[in-house]
Design a protein that fits this description.
heterodimer; A: alpha+beta; Glutaredoxin; 51% helix; B: de novo design (two linked rop proteins)
Chain lengths: 242, 145
Amino acid sequence: MSTAYTPPNPNKRRNVMIAGLVTVVVVVAAILILVSSGDSNSGAPAANAPLQGLKETKAMLDGIPQQGNALGKANAPVTLIEYADYQCPFCKQYALGTMPVLINDYVRTGKLRMEFAPLTFIGPDSETAARAGAGAGQQNLEWNFTHLFYFNQGTERSGYVTDAFINKLYAGAGVDAAKANAFRTTPAAALPLAAAAAGAQKYGVASTPAFVVGPTGGPYTKLEVEISNADAFKAAFDALLK
Amino acid sequence: MLDRRLYRTALVLAVVGIAIAAYLTYVHYAGIEPACSTGGCEVVQTSEWADVYGLPVAVLGLVGYILILVSLLALRGDAQLFASAALSLVGFLYSGYLTYQELFTIKAICQWCVASAVILTLLAIVTLWRLLASGGKPTEAADVG
């Protein structure tokens, strides 16, 4: 008994190929999405989560004078002003990556002073954080507060900058929370924000973090550098220190 | 005839996509603000979804659009249909995810990102349509490219 040969059905083969294509597409897209969300925070930092960066903040700032939003000796010959948003992830990247190197090599040695100019374009949490930073600045601890903030930064616009979150940062930064909280809701706490916005407009700041640099007291010019390139910052400082 | 029209539509969409992604890539590396009528471009461009482990999403988009264009121009027959559809569908799904983040997490609209998402949606429709309509027949567009 013999059976007739049945040629493979081309339509069936094609359908299998299309199904394979859909599978590959879904897998590749899923990998891309997972990779994209892999470097993001999952949202608000948990209320009971331990504060990150206490040791690093202390090591970076201990022994360096602060005056309001300024870090370093008042008579340092060069000033770097950073325009940043507390919620901006690239500002965190700069603060935790490049900035400690610059502080150690230039601020600690008295060659450079830094000013922090808080912008609030991302949303209400940015203003809450900036006002809280100003509260810490009243006690000359703004840099401690800000650095701890970046260590514990949550997802932008998720509403994580609560009173509890700020109080936790104040405690970590050594800020008198009662005094700072009383200050941060006053009109005076908005003044640094307005000054930063005016400066950003003056220097054409279009994204954060952005920097202007110059001899202390001015004139300042915009510094166009990759935020991860500490050598580019150093070259700009060295040119001004000559 | 229909395949030829769809093929040309896909070519135009890929070229427009390249133009948008190239502009956003330039803006990123030049450190300038993109022309923006929605007011949210800066927020989106500085959000944590604007890069994948340091690689700007604009660059990823540019590479994707170029691959789609190359698949349309350099490949023939089923290879062209399958490659262009696969690339467009991956782009469509990924841009859908980014648009979701824009609308519901970042809560800001970047007109260029929306334009790119629309183009990838159209590309996915057109290339998938070509693939399903061809039914294994040689593509008319093989002579066009």
